[in-house]
Fold this protein.
Amino acid sequence: MIEGSLTDPSLTIKKRVPLCWRIYMTQGEFLDTVLPFKDKLYRLARRILVSTDEAEDAVQEVYLKLWKNKRSIKNYKNPEAFAVTMTKNYCLDRLKSKQAGNLKIVHSNYAHSQNVAREIEANDGVALVFKIMETLPEQQKIVLQLRDVEQFEFAEIAKMLDNNETAIRVALSRARKTVREQLIQYNNYGIS
Amino acid sequence: MELAKIEQLLEAYFEGNTTLQEEATLRSYFSSAEVAPHLQQYQLMFASFAKAQTESFTRDIVLPKEHKTTSRLWIGIAASLLVAVGVFGFFNQEPSLTAEEKEAIAAFEKTREAFKMMSQNFNEGAEELAYIQNFKETKNKILK
């Protein structure tokens, strides 16, 4: 799809017409604007919600919301940052409502089986790091994801999370150190 | 890349004080085959972040059909135009007449013409009568 738009001259010309001249954004233009970062949104949702199904639902939901707000999306300087913020808020809301509901028993069951899974996947180092990331506080988890996986600038992350750069750096430092410590701890247990 | 530099970067990394560029240096170092033995414990961390970046969203995104919003606007514009044209036309139309009414109007016109002619002739006749007035005056002068 991206290749097509690069080679097809009619499409590239169409893109150059400033969006502000028109009231409505077509669905094609909308998708051209927002689809390039769908994977980033999905991975962020996945980090927060853990379940792939729920992460996919979240991304779908965020895109619906973006589509409904398409008239304002062209006014944002950085639609990507806007979408990331939306995804983060949506996923945190989902978590909250899940915890508020009577899912506590299910949740503790899940935590129990998670430990089993951790032992099974002991030889899969990458999975181990993901598991450690799951245990981080939400803010740290999100910062680590946005910086070390998605490689956003501190200024961008600060904007996305509506926070200052110093706080972002502190959260990131804590997250990185926790992952390191947990890995060392795990390795020590593994050896002994 | 010298080991001392990597160790220094790594320390800054855990303090959250590295730039994206420096982090890229670390990533490429840890993805290389020659990682110093005492640094190998960090390899997994960077490998995992790289792995995490390969995950992608495979489901199709479903959006509501576009015409629901856009074409509704056009239907609205078209409908109001139609009404406007209709109203304009209604007030500007020539009254349409049946054959009988046309005949009646034609007859009326003809009658009016005839009356006009008659009144004209009558007026001419009346002008001639002015002489009678002269005649009367002269008669009065003479007869007193």
